[in-house]
Design brief:
By secondary structure, the protein is mainly alpha-helical. It folds into three domains: 73 residues, no CATH class; 46 residues, no CATH class; 56 residues, no CATH class. The protein is built from four helices and four strands, in the order ααααββββ. A two-stranded antiparallel sheet has the order 1-4. The chain has a two-stranded antiparallel ribbon with strand order 2-3. β2 and β3 form a beta hairpin. The chain is elongated. About 12% of the residues have low confidence.
Length: 183
C-alpha cells in the first residue's frame, strides 16, 4: 500500500524533528556534564536555570575540596565560615605533618605547644645515623642543601638515608652536604 505523498513528507519531517531533538538533548547533557565538572568546554548559555544552580553548587564543592587540600586553585573568599574553619584546621594538620616529617614546608610558629613537644621528643629519640655518616644535628635532620633524612628520592624512589658531607670537586666547586638513597 502506498501512502499519499503528503503523509510520506509529513512522516519524514516528524522523524527528522524527533532525531534532531534527541541529538540536541545529548549535546545538552554532555554540556551539563562538562559544566558540572568544571571543564573548559562548558557553555553556560546552554544550561537551564536549574542546571546553572547545580553547576554553581558543584563549583563551590570543588573549591572547598581544593582549599581543604591546600591546592593553589583555592579561592577562600567563596568559603562559608564553617568551611573556612575546617580548611584552617586541615592546613594546621598538614603543617604538623610537614614538621613531624622534617619537610621544608614546615612552619613551626603554627604548631601548638603539645605538637612542638611531640616533634622535639621524636627528633631526640630517632635512631642515630652510623657514626661515619652523622648528619648535622638538628631536629629535622636536614642537610646543607635542604634534603632531609627519609625524604623520597625523585630518581630512585627510595628514602634518602645516606648522608654525604660537603666537599670540593677537583675544579674547585663546592658541593653542599646532602642525603642520598642507597641503591
Amino acid at each position: 500500500m502506498h501512502l499519499p505523498i503528503v503523509f510520506r513528507v509529513l512522516f519524514v519531517f516528524v522523524f527528522a524533528a524527533a532525531a534532531s531533538t534527541l541529538g540536541t538533548a545529548s549535546a545538552q547533557d554532555a554540556n551539563f556534564y562538562a559544566c558540572n565538572n568544571g571543564y573548559a568546554t562548558c557553555n553556560q548559555g546552554m544550561l537551564s536555570e536549574e542546571q546553572k544552580a547545580q553547576v554553581s553548587q558543584a563549583a563551590l564543592q570543588r573549591n572547598f575540596y581544593a582549599c581543604n587540600n591546600g591546592y593553589a586553585t583555592c579561592n577562600q573568599t567563596l568559603l562559608s565560615e564553617s568551611q573556612r574553619s575546617q580548611v584552617n584546621q586541615s592546613a594546621l594538620q598538614r603543617n604538623f605533618h610537614a614538621c613531624n616529617n622534617g619537610y621544608a614546608t614546615c612552619n613551626q610558629t603554627l604548631l601548638s605547644d603539645d605538637q612542638l613537644k611531640q616533634i622535639t621528643t621524636k627528633a631526640s629519640s630517632q635512631t642515630k645515623l652510623p657514626s661515619d655518616r652523622q648528619a648535622p644535628i638538628s631536629p629535622s635532620y636536614c642537610a646543607e642543601n635542604g634534603s632531609c633524612y627519609g625524604d623520597i628520592s625523585g630518581i630512585t624512589g627510595l628514602p634518602k638515608t645516606h648522608h654525604v658531607n660537603g666537599y670540593y670537586r677537583k675544579d674547585g666547586t663546592y658541593v653542599r652536604g646532602h642525603f642520598r638513597s642507597r641503591r
